[in-house]
Design a protein that fits this description.
Blueprint lengths: L28 H7 L5 H11 L4 E4 L21 H10 L4 E5 L4 E6 L4 H15 L5 E3 L5 E7 L8 E3 L2 E4 L4 E5 L26 E2 L1 H14 L8 H6 L18 E2 L5 E3 L1 H14 L5 H15 L15 H14 L22 H16 L5 H13 L10 H8 L3 H13 L3 E5 L6 E7 L1 H4 L2 H16 L1
Parallel strand pairs: 5-9
Antiparallel strand pairs: 1-2, 2-8, 3-5, 3-7, 4-5, 6-7, 10-11, 12-13
Helix pairs in contact: 2-3, 4-5, 5-10, 7-8, 7-9, 8-9, 10-11, 10-15, 11-12, 11-13, 12-13
């Protein structure tokens, strides 16, 4: 394997020059594309793209997927001369995918509205710098390409209508777009004309800051599926937060809490108590009215079939009075149940992400479990609280809810995440927090850094 520190200059074997290439007379991206037959992307373009330092894989003609088994290893290593020659010989008409995470990262802006696409692109450039590589498939949607900084590995993320195309993912660089029937376009420069070492370098911390900015830009989910429009139910959001004091709860497009409703009701109980209600019934009456107004009650309670009822508020109110807690002043009651928690800094969260990555590299977590933890981290980025349900996280990661349940159990067992236990029950509510102690797990960091060091010397 190659090291992430070797990205600055491509170091392919001299035999690469013997692979078929586009003729030297073509010097610009547009003239290259004009001179390449639609059925010969891989044959004519693979060699110069590899020589410029990009990690490539073959893509099925006119599609966005690859048929190559074990393709993800090319996120961290370039294909050998023998592998590249075999691809060209067997599949000269295939497209070319750019594998990401170790050498380069793609910021996929999936906005159909031109003004929003432009705003998001400006936001990305303000956080990461201006890149000469912009790939367009179906305008105004576009992918901006950056170089991964030395020693870094960028994980894949999703926030709003933007995908961070990182480790374990790829994008199509050359081929025919299945929707338009035309080749993907590079309006300025391209991987054919620009060495990867000439791209702006980005770090995990910069990506973290970008995600924070994107989270603020996409404040409330605005995506509702056709089924939800017909039934009146709001779809779960995908890694979206809102810039409010209660940003750790998950909202639908109508501003109703859909995940974290148990904690939301608890907060309303404290709010009613602070406002002067003294009996359990009085507290429950006020809290239930606020809860009904602010939460989506079309889904059952937790993972069961029982709907939310006023008795849930009454039980919480009775417990509050039994606890003997002093009535707080209404003016200082936090709207959250965790107002005294100081949010982790972006650097702390990045260290937490690295710790999870280390567990994945050590085989303690599967790639899917690592992705689920990363998704939970994005939900917890502002308040340290992840109230996302299994369905919401599964929607973000692209897996089944039951897979999320098993992953969260494993993450709790390893000490990466903590969760609150239901009062009087055996289960766990969907209230998770990243565990600071896991960041100091030197054994995992040792494994991770030894792995990176080994890659650097191989």
């Amino acid at each position: 394997m190659s090291s992430p520190q070797q990205f600055t200059e491509p170091t392919l074997d001299i035999a690469l020059s013997n692979l078929p290439r586009v003729s030297a007379g073509h010097s610009s991206p547009s003239s290259i594309l004009t001179g390449v037959r639609r059925e010969s992307f891989l044959r004519d373009l693979l060699a110069p793209i590899l020589s410029n330092g990009y990690r490539c894989i073959p893509i099925l003609p006119g599609q966005k997927r690859t048929s190559l088994r074990g393709w993800s290893k090319f996120c961290s290593e370039q294909p050998t001369i023998k592998q590249a020659a075999a691809w060209i010989e067997r599949h000269p008409d295939y497209g070319i995918g750019i594998a990401c995470g170790w050498s380069c990262v793609g910021i996929d802006i999936d906005e159909s509205d031109p003004s929003k696409a432009s705003e998001v692109e400006d936001l990305v450039c303000a956080r990461l710098g201006v890149t000469p590589l912009k790939r367009i498939g179906l305008a105004p949607r576009a992918i901006l390409v950056f170089r991964v900084g030395a020693g870094a590995i960028i994980p894949s993320r999703h926030v709003g209508k933007v995908d961070i195309i990182g480790d374990g993912t790829y994008f199509v660089g050359y081929g025919i777009h299945p929707g338009t029937g035309h080749p993907y376009a590079w309006p300025v420069d391209s991987p054919l004309t620009t060495k990867i070492s000439n791209l702006p370098s980005v770090t995990q911390a910069q990506i973290g800051h970008l995600i924070e900015a994107l989270s603020d830009y996409y404040r409330i989910a605005d995506h509702v599926t056709d089924h939800d429009q017909q039934t009146g139910h709001a779809a779960p959001v995908r890694l979206r937060t809102i810039s409010r004091s209660d940003a750790h709860w998950i909202y639908n497009n109508r501003g109703q809490v859909i995940d974290g409703r148990d904690s939301f009701l608890t907060a309303k109980i404290y709010q009613a108590y602070a406002n002067g209600a003294s009996t359990a019934n009085a507290i429950a009456d006020q809290a239930w009215s606020l809860f009904v107004a602010g939460a989506d009650l079309t889904r059952p309670k937790r993972d069961g079939k029982r709907p939310w009822q006023k008795t849930d508020a009454l039980a919480k109110a009775a417990y509050l009075l039994r606890s003997g807690k002093t009535r707080p002043a209404a003016a200082i009651v936090s709207t959250t149940s965790s107002g005294n928690i100081v949010a982790w800094s972006s650097d702390d969260l990045e260290r937490f992400i690295q710790s999870v990555n280390a567990a994945g590299a050590a085989g303690e977590l599967s790639p899917t479990q690592v992705s689920i933890s990363h998704a939970m981290t994005e939900f917890a980025r502002h308040k340290n609280d992840c109230f996302a349900s299994c369905e919401t996280i599964a929607n973000a990661v692209g897996c089944k809810p039951n897979t999320v349940k098993k992953a969260r159990r494993r993450l709790r067992t390893l000490g990466f995440w903590t969760s609150q236990q239901c009062r009087g029950g055996k289960g766990f509510i969907a209230h998770y927090r990243p565990n600071p102690a896991s960041v100091d797990r030197s054994d995992l960091f040792s494994v991770y850094h030894n792995l990176v060091s080994k890659e650097a010397t191989s």
